[in-house]
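Why should sequence recovery work at all? Because a backbone constrains its sequence more than one might expect. Tight turns favour small or flexible residues, buried strands favour hydrophobic ones, and helices have their own preferences. The token representation captures these environments compactly. In the example below, the structure is given first.
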């Protein structure tokens, strides 16, 4: 690159921090302190390439108990794949620091941060945090990936959620990510994804695993998926690995199967299972063995979410089924998913795997 080209590169300014082309920076954005006056920092990592390109924002723990994304970002920013980066990677491992230290999905005022965007600097704690994140970080990016997991005691098959119509390249990026299932999900008022769509920023949500639990498969798939998106955006060179991934399959809709009675659940199908309408997915029995009821699929499709807690109450959501025009291609994608992770990640993995 010539000196003239280097001079033409733009410095990046985030919260008064100047990051020059070809440099890395890690810094804290101060948030409102705890009632003990202990400071609360939101740490931001910036890798600013020498060559112009997209500015990709990757964030995790918008819900404070969703920790797989934190490990995904840790591995992401340490990867040698970022050498020669074109464009900029902005990574925020923990957005909801308050929920994280309390092992809680919510903020101390019980608000869901992902229903408070774009927020306001005069509102609640959640509104102020959403406002700061929107104006300091979201406004400087051109693309984004928000890393999530299932709720407490609820496990999600790795999946990408986006709204195809929200931005021209949303569908292409969702397919590039390489998760076995894509959900063309409606935008929810107050969510980070909805605010990004309002600003014309292509934004994906990656879901996988369970709150407060690590899953090596989910983490590896997340790291791999972010790099695949970066490759599609021209930010990194072609990734290692010669295997071809089957095309990800977009679901038409999803449906929760709920508990027919209170009691103890014995789940009979795993995540990723192909099921038919009427198939028995599990059995709910009372703890004294006097009665039991079958839990049957209300539609055909792939199980993309499952309740892991055997103690259930009537009406609890137990199995999340994604519906497809044809379930065969989706089942094939799920079956090959683990193989693809091993083939592609082992060639550039730098971490010892976490034992599931």
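From this structural description, the recovered sequence reads:
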């Amino acid at each position: 690159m010539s000196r003239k080209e280097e001079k033409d590169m733009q410095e990046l300014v985030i919260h008064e921090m100047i990051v020059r082309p070809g440099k890395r920076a890690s810094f804290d954005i101060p948030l409102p302190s705890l009632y003990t006056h202990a400071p609360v920092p939101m740490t931001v990592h910036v890798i600013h390439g020498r060559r112009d390109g997209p500015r990709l924002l990757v964030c995790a723990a918008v819900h404070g108990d969703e920790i797989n994304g934190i490990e995904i970002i840790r591995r992401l920013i340490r990867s040698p794949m970022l050498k020669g980066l074109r464009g900029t990677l902005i990574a925020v491992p923990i957005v909801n620091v308050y929920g994280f230290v309390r092992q809680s999905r919510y903020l101390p005022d019980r608000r869901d941060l992902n229903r408070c965007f774009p927020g306001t600097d005069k509102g609640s704690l959640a509104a102020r945090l959403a406002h700061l994140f929107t104006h300091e970080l979201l406004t400087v990016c051109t693309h984004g990936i928000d890393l999530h997991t299932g709720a407490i005691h609820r496990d999600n098959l790795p999946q990408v959620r986006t709204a195809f119509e929200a931005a021209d390249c949303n569908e292409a990026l969702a397919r590039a990510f390489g998760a076995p299932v894509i959900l063309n999900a409606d935008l929810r008022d107050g969510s980070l994804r909805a605010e990004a769509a309002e600003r014309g920023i292509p934004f994906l949500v990656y879901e996988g695993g369970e709150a407060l639990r690590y899953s090596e498969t989910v983490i590896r798939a997340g790291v791999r998926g972010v790099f695949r998106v970066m490759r599609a955006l021209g930010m990194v060179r072609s990734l290692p690995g010669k295997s071809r991934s089957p095309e990800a399959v977009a679901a038409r809709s999803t449906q929760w199967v709920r508990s027919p009675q209170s009691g103890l659940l014995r789940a009979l199908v795993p995540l990723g299972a192909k099921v038919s309408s009427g198939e028995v997915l599990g059995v709910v029995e009372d703890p004294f063995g006097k009665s039991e009821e079958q839990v049957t699929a209300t539609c055909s499709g792939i199980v993309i979410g499952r309740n892991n807690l055997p103690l259930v109450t009537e009406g609890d959501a137990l199995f999340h089924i994604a519906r497809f025009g044809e379930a065969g291609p989706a089942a094939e994608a799920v079956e090959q998913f683990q193989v693809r992770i091993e083939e592609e990640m082992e060639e550039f993995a730098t971490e010892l795997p976490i034992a599931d």
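A few observations help interpret the result. Confidence is low (pLDDT under 50) at residues 1-7.
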